[in-house]
Design brief:
Largest sheet: 7 strands, antiparallel
CATH topology of one domain: Chitinase A, domain 3
Shape: elongated
Radius of gyration: 32 Å
CATH architecture of one domain: Roll
Structural class: alpha+beta
CATH class of one domain: Alpha Beta
Length: 285
């Protein structure tokens, strides 16, 4: 057994390519060496941190470089290497990334690697597919949306309930008008100027808060009015701006579906009902 092990080691050693030693006979040799050395800058860090190569096997990594650069092209070996790279991306990037997108921060839910690979390989080889790829794409997107909404509701559903209760209450407040869309507003000052069309640029001052009073934006604090096209803001704003004559000062109570809905806007969490104190100063020609 010992002799056999020694023989195997000898065979393996004979397969190792020696690392070339530099020799300089002219400027081309010098350029070749210095360019090679310069191009290696940062490669080790990339190899370790991005490719996940264990530096214990640096010699094997070097042999891989030599084989790839000096050996004959081996289609079978190349196909396997490329497959391994894609497989590592599936395991380390695609599965975790799609799982986070679908299930949010719920670490108990993750895509099935077995089923993913079954579909992935069937599609790649075009053999054994249980459905057409176009049908799979549509179904996957539909399920992603469904899981994403479930995840958002689990985390931010209370925002939705609180907002609905608030809007029901504010709609019953004296002097508050509720439109067919669900937008509520209260006129503080009725202007006498022109009413903006959806494509008009409107100059306004405003202050925005959550229903608990938390302020998230204010042109007053910036000491500078804002100007934007009436149809390039959230739907609740567009509806209000196309009803407010220049010179108007209204309070707007905007339900989440006319605001940012399920989108997370930092200080404005998904399903948040918003309150705006808005003054229309001018329509900018």
């Amino acid at each position: 057994m010992i002799l056999m092990a020694v023989a195997i080691m000898a065979v393996l050693a004979s397969c190792q390519k020696p690392v070339p030693k530099a020799s300089f006979t002219d400027k081309v040799d010098t350029l070749s060496y210095t360019m090679g050395l310069a191009q290696s800058q940062g490669l080790k860090d990339y190899m370790v941190n991005r490719l996940g190569v264990d530096t214990t096997y640096m010699a094997d990594f070097v042999q891989g470089i030599l084989a790839g650069a000096t050996g004959k092209s081996n289609p079978k070996q190349m196909a396997r290497q490329q497959g391994m790279q894609i497989g590592q991306q599936v395991k380390e990037q695609i599965i975790p990334g799609v799982s986070r997108e679908a299930f949010g921060d719920d670490s108990t839910k993750v895509l099935s690697l077995k089923n993913f690979l079954s579909g992935f390989i069937a599609g790649t080889t075009e053999k054994g597919m249980l459905m057409p790829q176009t049908e799979a794409q549509a179904m996957a997107q539909s399920l992603m949306d469904e899981f994403h909404k479930e995840s958002l509701m689990a985390e931010f559903g209370d925002n939705k309930k609180a907002g609905e209760a608030f809007m029901d209450s504010i709609a019953k407040t004296p002097d508050v008008v509720k439109t067919a869309s669900g937008l509520c507003y209260k006129v503080i000052t009725e202007g006498k100027g022109k009413v903006a069309a959806k494509t008009d640029r409107v100059k306004v001052n405003y202050r925005g808060t959550l229903i608990d009073g938390t302020e998230f934006d204010s042109s007053y604090k910036r000491n500078e009015p804002s100007t934007f096209r009436a149809n390039q803001v959230i739907p609740g704003w567009t509806e209000a701006l196309t009803m407010m004559p220049v010179g108007s000062h209204w309070m707007l109570y905007i339900p989440q579906d006319l605001a940012y809905g399920e989108r997370n806007q930092g200080s404005i969490k998904p399903f948040s009902t918003l309150i705006f104190d808005v003054e229309v100063l001018d329509i900018v020609e």
